Amino acid sequence: MSKRPEWLDAAVFYEIYPQSFKDTDGDGIGNINGMTEKLSYIRELGCNAIWINPCFESPFGDAGYDVSDYCRIAPRYGTNDDMVRLFEEAHKQGIHILLDLVPGHTSWDHPWFKESMKAARNEYTDRYVWTDSVWEEPEGFSTIRGLSERDGSCIVNFFTHQPALNYGFYRPEKPWQQAMDAPGPQATIEALKDIMRFWLSKGCDGFRVDMAGSLVKNDEDQKGTIALWQNIRAFLDEEYPEAAMVSEWGEPDKSLAGGFHMDFLLHFGPSHYNDLFRCEKPFFAGNGDASEFVAKYIENYERSERKGLICIPSGNHDMDRLARHIKGDNRRLAFAFLLSMPGAPYIYYGDEIGMNYVEGLASVEGGYGRTGSRSPMQWDTSENAGFSSAPSDRLYIPIDPSEDRPDAASQTEDEASLRSEVKRLIAVRQSHKALNNLGDIEFILNGAKEKPLAYTRSFDGEKIFVIINPADEKYEMTSAEGLSDIIYKFGECSVTDTGCVIGPHSAAFIRQGADRGSEASE
Ligand code: GLC
Q1: 179: in domain
Q2: Does residue 65's CB lie within 6 angstroms of at least one atom of ligand 1?
Q3: Are strands 346-348 and 475-477 parallel, antiparallel or unpaired?
Q4: How far away, in angstroms, is 491 Cα from ligand 1 center?
Q5: Could you give the CA distance from residue 442 to residue 480 in angstroms, rounded to a whole number?
Q6: What's phi and psi for 80, nearest 5 deg?
Q7: 77: closest CA among 108, 44, 99, 105?
Q8: Going by DSSP bridges, is the β-strand pair 453-459/310-311 parallel, antiparallel, or unpaired?
């Protein structure tokens, strides 16, 4: 059993999209020093961990998910030394940092790919997945064809400019499909370990792993990909046992078997995550139904042995801003949910102040519809919302033009703001182990047909009942025994002999049972 970095158990993450966070050199794009400058803002909110989207050298056809040098910070963000300083300053403030590791593909500008396109055999010929004839277009895959003298088609992993690295096929069926233990795939794994070593030795605390389930091909049950990650975990246990690993996979039973500590709940696929926040009638808008989400969550939770390691994000760089569909006080209820669920919560920069999805923007760096969720952080009411001193037409993405756009400085001062609510919620979570990442969860009400969502979180004798009602009507809960003091409340809630009455657009966390349990030390 691999070691588990203890800090993960109480981690509340903040996701930074580096382009749009804080520009300190006036070129209109965020940078590493901007993140360092804003660490105290993140710490003051209560977050103690950060995930940074890829910030490595790249032609930025997919905002940096198309890496051309894994071991070099993109010059527009600063230098490797700036990154080391960010690690050091973060650690001084008790913040851990995960970098984004993109193991499935590179940019087609990566020197490895350029070498692999050559007709003459070389060290990188087998670094990517190539067919042995340009006329072959393998079923089920998109390919890059006709760009090289090499006679072959190269499989892509996502966009056309992202050729798939070669980790082999679980069941090779054609001569060009290499086995996982063939020299090419083995060399790719070693190269991946070298990248991880490089950043871990500089002080990074681990990785969020992009498309972690996509590596081995023809691998329906993902047995090959799981084995590959077990190999990586064994290397980490040997050399960097404290390294934290969080996967973008969406199947916690598989990713945990592969040695990941936590897995993300995805906004695509079968998770029903969007039923809560982003659909025609989202649950948190007050008129939706959370029951299919709950059913799927429980299924995954059971499959991963109730380890509670499914991370639920407020949003991310790939989906609509939370504020696009959830309005007013109901945003607070969404955070009451996110910050009382098992697994580490992830707050996407700016969601804590209710930043808008900026409508109608032209796509930037392969953002397409995602661009509206990637606009610059709104720090204050000064020029460019305090994001950058560049002329506004030179900004990476335009600032939200709305007159009533929220900003961090005003909300930090205002006790009644969304940010202050989020801060209170993080503080409550961090002072009760039952609400932390490892506490158990039992659903009591599944949010079906405009009913509240209610669940009990427990850990080591402490039990906390959570009830969240985004609907317009109050709800009387008559089957929750032993409720005592309310440790967090937004809106209205009163405890009764048989349960509680929760007001419309309200949330409460209530102690349950005689044992008052253990207060977490931090
Ligand atoms: C992940 C990233 C996304 C990127 C894709 C390809 O889903 O979150 O932004 O475009 O992988 O790397």
Answers
A1: no
A2: yes
A3: unpaired
A4: 38
A5: 12
A6: -60, -35
A7: 99
A8: unpaired
Within a domain: 178: no
- The answer, yes or no, to whether any atom of ligand 1 lies below 6 A from the CB of 161, is no
For CA atoms 193, 198, 203, 208, the dihedral sign is negative
pTM greater than the 0.85 cutoff: yes
Q: Is the CB of 62 under 6 A from ligand 1?
A: yes
Residue holding tokens 């004798």?
461
Tell me how far apart the alpha carbons of residues 509 and 522 are, in angstroms, rounded to a whole number: 19
Check pocket membership of 100 for ligand 1, CB cut-off 6 A.
no
pLDDT tens digits along 337-393: 999 999 999 999 999 999 999 999 999 999 999 999 999 999 999 999 999 999 999
Residue count (the chain): 522
Q: What is the pLDDT of residues 50-79, one digit of tens each?
A: 999 999 999 999 999 999 999 999 999 999
Token digits for 314?
């407020």
The Cβ of residue 414 has, within 10 Å, a number of other Cβ atoms equal to: 11
Q: Say if residue 136 is in the same domain as residue 217.
A: no
For residue 121, give the CATH number of its domain.
Answer: 3.90.400.10
| Model pLDDT for residues 492-501, shown as the tens digit of each residue | 999 999 999 9
**Atom number of ligand 1 nearest to Cα 159:** 6
If asked whether residues 371 and 402 sit together in one domain, one would say: yes
Residue 228 pLDDT > 50: yes
Range of the domain at 472: 441-512
Residue 389 neighbours by CB under 8 Å, 6+ apart = 23, 26, 383
Integer CA distances (angstroms), 193 to 107, 190, 233, 237, 328, in order = 19, 5, 10, 12, 46
Give burial (CB, 10 Å; 0-12/13-18/19+) of 314.
buried
- Whose alpha carbon is nearest atom 9 of ligand 1? 318
Structure tokens at 226: 């799981």
What 3-state DSSP class applies to 489? strand
- Contact status, residue 408 vs residue 341, Cβ threshold 8 Å: no
User: Looking at the 3D structure of the chain, how many domains does it have?
Assistant: 3
* Long-range contacts of 21-25, Cβ-Cβ distance < 8 Å, separation of 24 or more: 21/349, 21/376, 21/377, 22/377, 22/379, 22/387, 22/388, 23/387, 23/388, 23/389, 23/390
